[in-house]
Design brief:
42% helix, Spore Coat Polysaccharide Biosynthesis Protein SpsA, Chain A, alpha/beta, 20% strand, nine-stranded mixed sheet
């Protein structure tokens, strides 16, 4: 068994994936044992071939490439990769990231040495070296209605400021999926990622379920670890993606906060986008989505086909 399994999803962005792999190989010291599992989420054949050729050239025993014949989304792709993993901890790393220092070693040791901690992430930076938000508060009705800043002002202990730069590990509620590290035991106990979710809020849902179902389910930001995230490079910008974000938002809220909270937010968004449509007619499909309840059946997950 390895200390840590790093699982990376590729979807038509092999150049980023290869750079991510190389940064892990370059920055990770021999003080821990690790494996890299690359999941190709049904990319175009040309992109998959480029990735496969690059990995074959590296020819490393701890580097494995597996391919799904259909796009299973973020959670599904990572769950597919977990089947090939054998380690104490899992690191789910976006392919559009590169490590700045020995992140895997830092986060592994933090979780090993903190019995109450189950999940953590390093500090996130953008491509020009600016510190980015590296944690979030649980998705809740009050967060969506009043905003994060209000919560942070009212109860700074429960809701620490996301904009602040921290020097020491900080207990938080949720960390981003761009670089999420979790103890395998805790991950297994809650069944891992919810594969009903195609994109967005999978990590929030996971952190919530682990915290709720375990006495040792704390979540932390570990700022000693540092990585660069080229945001949005692995996900296309489209109206369909905007819809997916809202579908996942309401699905996760209903799942973890209940039907009443879901209905309040759903109708608040319906009214909000009705008036927005009067100014921006392009917003009409989102208004219609909320009017219908943003069902999971409208997700991109339902439109996937099996590749040859």
């Amino acid at each position: 068994m390895k200390d840590i399994s790093a699982i990376i999803i590729n979807y038509n962005s092999s150049a980023f994936t290869v750079n991510c792999i190389k940064s892990i190989l370059e920055k990770t010291t021999n003080s821990i044992s690790y494996e890299l599992i690359i999941v190709d989420n049904a990319s175009e054949h040309e992109d998959f071939k480029k990735l496969k050729d690059a990995i074959n050239k590296l020819n490393l025993p701890n580097l494995k490439l597996v391919r799904s014949r259909y796009n299973t989304g973020f959670g599904g792709g990572n769950m597919f990769g977990v089947q090939f993993a054998n380690a104490k901890q899992y690191a789910f790393i976006n392919n559009d990231t590169i490590l700045q220092n020995d992140c895997l070693n830092i986060v592994f040791n933090f979780l090993e040495n903190n019995a109450e901690a189950a999940i953590c992430c390093p500090q996130q930076y953008n491509e020009v070296g600016e510190v980015q938000k590296s944690f979030d508060h649980f998705l809740s009705l009050k967060r969506e209605l009043f905003g994060r800043k209000i919560l942070e002002k009212i109860n700074p202990t429960k809701y620490p400021k996301r904009q602040k730069v921290y020097a020491q590990p900080l207990k938080v509620q949720s960390v981003p999926g761009s670089f999420l590290v979790v103890k395998a035991e805790q991950f297994h106990k809650v069944g891992g990622f919810d594969t009903n979710i195609f994109l967005y809020y999978e990590e929030t849902d996971l952190c919530y379920r682990i915290a709720k179902n375990s006495k040792k389910g704390d979540c932390y930001l570990v700022p000693e670890g540092k990585f660069t995230h080229f945001k949005g490079q692995s996900t296309e910008k489209s109206f369909a993606i905007k819809k997916e974000l809202k579908i996942s938002l309401l699905y996760v809220l209903r799942k973890n906060s209940g039907y009443f909270a879901y209905q309040i937010l759903r109708w608040w968004l319906t009214v909000k986008f009705f008036f927005k449509t009067l100014i921006k007619p392009k917003s009409f499909p989102l208004f219609l989505l909320f009017l219908k309840g943003a069902p999971i059946s409208a997700s991109l997950k339902q439109k996937q086909i099996i590749a040859d």
